[in-house]
C-alpha cells in the first residue's frame, strides 16, 4: 500500500509516534503506529486506535479514517 497519508500528517503536525502512544486511551503500541505510517496492513481496530490518538493529540482538525489511510482495515 505504500506510505500512508498518516505519515505526512504526523510530519506536518510535528508529532512523533510516541505522542500518539502517550495520547491513546486504548492499548496502542509503537509497532502499530510504525506499521500504520509505512503502509503495512492493519486491522480496522488498530486503525481506529491510531485515529483516536491522533485526534486526541491535536485540536486543529478532527481527522477521519479516510484522511489518514488509503485502504479499509481488515
Would you summarize the structure shown here?
The two termini are 13 Å apart. The protein is built from five helices and no strands.
Topology:
Elements: H1 5-12, H2 17-23, H3 30-38, H4 44-57, H5 65-68
Helix pairs in contact: 2-4
Notable features of this structure?
mainly alpha, 5 helices, 74 residues, globular
Describe the structure.
- 26% of the residues are buried.
- The protein is mainly alpha-helical and 74 residues long.
- The chain is built from five helices and no strands.
- It has helices at residues 5-12, 17-23, 30-38, 44-57, 65-68.
Relative strand content: under 5%
- Beta strands, count: 0
Total of helices? 5
Mean pLDDT: 93
Amino acid at each position: 500500500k505504500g506510505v500512508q497519508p498518516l505519515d505526512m500528517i504526523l510530519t506536518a503536525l510535528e508529532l512523533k509516534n510516541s505522542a500518539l502512544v502517550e495520547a491513546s486511551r486504548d492499548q496502542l503500541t509503537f509497532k502499530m503506529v510504525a506499521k500504520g505510517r509505512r503502509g503495512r496492513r492493519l486491522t480496522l481496530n488498530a486503525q481506529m486506535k491510531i485515529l483516536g490518538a491522533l485526534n486526541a493529540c491535536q485540536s486543529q482538525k478532527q481527522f477521519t479514517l479516510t484522511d489518514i489511510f488509503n485502504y479499509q482495515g481488515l
